[in-house]
Amino acid sequence: MVLIYILSLLFAVTEPLEGPLLSKYLKSSHKVLTKHFGAEIQDIKRIKHASVEKYHVSVNDKKVHLVLAEVAACKLGGCSIFVGDSDDLSSEYFDLLLVLSAEDIIQEIKILDYFSDYGYEINSKRYLKKFIGKSPCDFKLQTDDIDGISGATISSSALESIISQLCE
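RE: above sequence
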């Protein structure tokens, strides 16, 4: 907890860090933003969103959105996790980082942690590059023209599903 407080001071966070994913991936988020924009984070504020952690971020006087999500994917045996809401069902997750422009266009996408033995192909930089320049609404309307990736069909469907939930 002390580390989170110190990091929040270093990165000029104006409110207490509320999201567990931002707390876990603060260094990774900062690194991605610095690499993409070549500048330090100036300000970060949490936005209320139902399914993900979403933040307004000021970087180099530009406004962007940082999205962190724990994406539920299924095990090789099937996708029963999406049928019910039972705790008995096991599912596997991966953690996602998205940087969206102020106009909600994907600027950067990164899989932070992938916890499964199957579907790791989703980490392919070549595959993830296809998301750059797309809007979350493209995925909701199914006009994104991105095919699933062989060997990671379930994970790629889960990825597109969580992105489509950002369409507002």
